[in-house]
Design a protein that fits this description.
5 helices; 5-stranded antiparallel beta sheet; alpha+beta; 19% strand; globular; 139 residues
Length: 139
Amino acid sequence: MSDWNVLYKELTNKYDYIKLNNPATEKQILDVEKALDNKLPVDLKELLLKFNGDNSLIFSTEQIIETNLSVRKLDCFMSLDCLLFFGGNGCGDYYGYPITREHGVRDNNVFMWEHEYDNRIWKASSLEDTIKKYYNDEI
C-alpha cells in the first residue's frame, strides 16, 4: 500500500508543474466504474481519493472516463478495450492496466499505448512504480 501523500509531497517539492486536484468522491469513483464497466484497482482508487489527478500524468476521474470511452470508439487501431487508461504523457500516449471483460483489471502491471504505432508496451509493475519512473524520466 502506497503512501500517496509522502510520494506527492516529494514530487510537488521537486516539480512545480504538478498541481494536485481535490480528492475524488466515492460517487466519482463509482461513476468511473459504472461508465467503464470495470472495478478500479485498489491503488488507483486510493490515489484518486487523495488527489483526483495531478494535472500532468494522472487523469482525474472525469478524464479517465472521457479518455477510455473516446479511444474505445477509434476504428483505426486494434481494439483498445483491453486497457483501462488512468494517465498520459501529454503527447497522445496513455498509461493503463490490462483488463478483460470477464475479470476486469488483471494485475498491477502498467502498459503504455503509443498512438503513432499502436504499440502496447510494458512500462512498470505498479501505479507507484509508474509515477516514480515517469517523474524520473525513466519511461
